Amino acid sequence: MTASKLSPKRCVLFDGFAGRGRFETGAPGSAEHMMLAAQKRKGSTQIDLLLVERARAEYESLDSVADEYRSRGIRIHSYHGECGDHLGDALKLATDASLFLFLDPCGAVLPMGSIREVLRQRGSWPRTEVLLNFNADLIRRAGGQLKKGQLDLGGVAQADQVCGGEWWRDVALQAHETSGGQTWESAADAVALQYARRLTEGTPYGSVVAPVRRQIHHQPVYYLIFLTSQPHGFWVFGVSAAKARERWIEFLGPDPDERESMLWDTVADQVDREHTKAVAHITDNLRALTADGQAKRAVDHVTDIFGDLYGEAKETAFTAALRELVKSGDLEYVDKGKKPRDFVFRRAA
Ligand SMILES: C[S@@+](CC[C@H](N)C(=O)[O-])C[C@H]1O[C@@H](n2cnc3c(N)ncnc32)[C@H](O)[C@@H]1O
């Protein structure tokens, strides 16, 4: 999408903590997902990859997976080394192309300053988007060490580096104390939100912070932080997150506490219940959004439409809500674009 208005249509995908490319089970890792995407789009968009991996064994696996796709005509640059040393290569390769930066370390991500510098150098055209893994454990551990005055254990210094300064220390301690001083969950939440705000401050970029958990009631393992300068980015990220969340709930299976006493499939039930709730929520939001009588294009009103259910409600909840409101005569289509996000609608006269 980000390359669709470029000529030639070219996009660079950067996987800075690439891993082995393909898991031992044969399932694709992030890098092979990128290769598959590049192969799928080959006829319409040139997608070039730049991959970096520090561990020798992982790199060898990565490079041999890359060879398979190179032999099919995909351009892949792979480096055995430090992610931070190759940002300049990514910027150079992405001259006149759109750029997607994926940063998925197991621990600390790049210092904030280097990511901000990429945003600064890129500006907003051609488009750039970033998806990064912000480690919640790192903040919890560093917060614990800070509270006990264990500044020599490394966690605090690492968090200072990731966060681009010491500002996170007060944010974490304050959230920790306010939540009763027992756990660091709210501290990690507060720091992740503030991190995303500071990362994009003074740039044309906005952010989404999505907590990732192993189980619904667990504390987040990490936060996925997505940066984009475009409403389309927010729309697509939100509906993709909702789809992924549904697959994850199906993968987890029924809640063991519920399964004992239920005769029906509680997963399908949960998905249905959530969908019905989402349609009702979005119906209210669409009524409020159109109350002023002005025509509205869906993609320009992501937050107004999805509200608290952004990242949980599926696109089909939006289309179902809108369809019903048009059917009941409350709203009318002004323009029915190709995709739901392009729909333009207003309150019926
Ligand atoms: C969480 S894994 C990435 C998994 C990958 N996204 C996937 O889907 O398969 C993080 C990887 O980053 C590598 N790594 C850690 N620090 C690095 C650095 N500074 N530069 C490049 N790679 C690094 C690790 O060796 C590890 O393979």
Report on this structure.
By secondary structure, the protein is of the alpha/beta class. Helices cover 46% and strands 17% of the residues. The chain has 13 helices and ten strands. The chain has a seven-stranded mixed β-sheet, with helices on both faces. Helix 2 (56-70) links the parallel strand 2 (46-53) and strand 3 (76-80). 36% of the residues are buried. The model has no long low-confidence stretch (mean pLDDT 95). S-adenosylmethionine binds next to strand 2. Residues 17, 19, 29-30, 52-55, 58, 82-83, 104-106 line the site of S-adenosylmethionine.
Summarize this structure as a short list of keywords or feature phrases.
349 residues; alpha/beta; Rossmann fold; Arc Repressor Mutant, subunit A; 2 domains; seven-stranded mixed sheet; three-stranded antiparallel sheet; 13 helices; 46% helix; 17% strand; globular; binds S-adenosylmethionine
Walk me through the topology.
Blueprint: E1 10-15, H1 30-40, E2 46-53, H2 56-70, E3 76-80, H3 87-93, E4 98-103, H4 112-122, E5 128-135, H5 136-147, H6 155-163, H7 167-178, H8 185-200, E6 206-212, E7 222-228, H9 231-252, H10 256-259, H11 266-289, E8 296-297, H12 302-306, H13 315-327, E9 331-335, E10 344-347
This protein binds S-adenosylmethionine.
Number of domains: 2
Most strands sheet: 7 strands, mixed
Q: Please tally the helical runs, counting DSSP H or I stretches of 4 or more residues.
A: 13
End-to-end span in angstroms? 35 Å
The 3D shape can be described as globular
Bound compounds, each kind once, are: S-adenosylmethionine
Helix content: 40-55%
Could you tell me the mean pLDDT?
A: 95
What are the secondary-structure elements, in order, as H or E? EHEHEHEHEHHHHEEHHHEHHEE
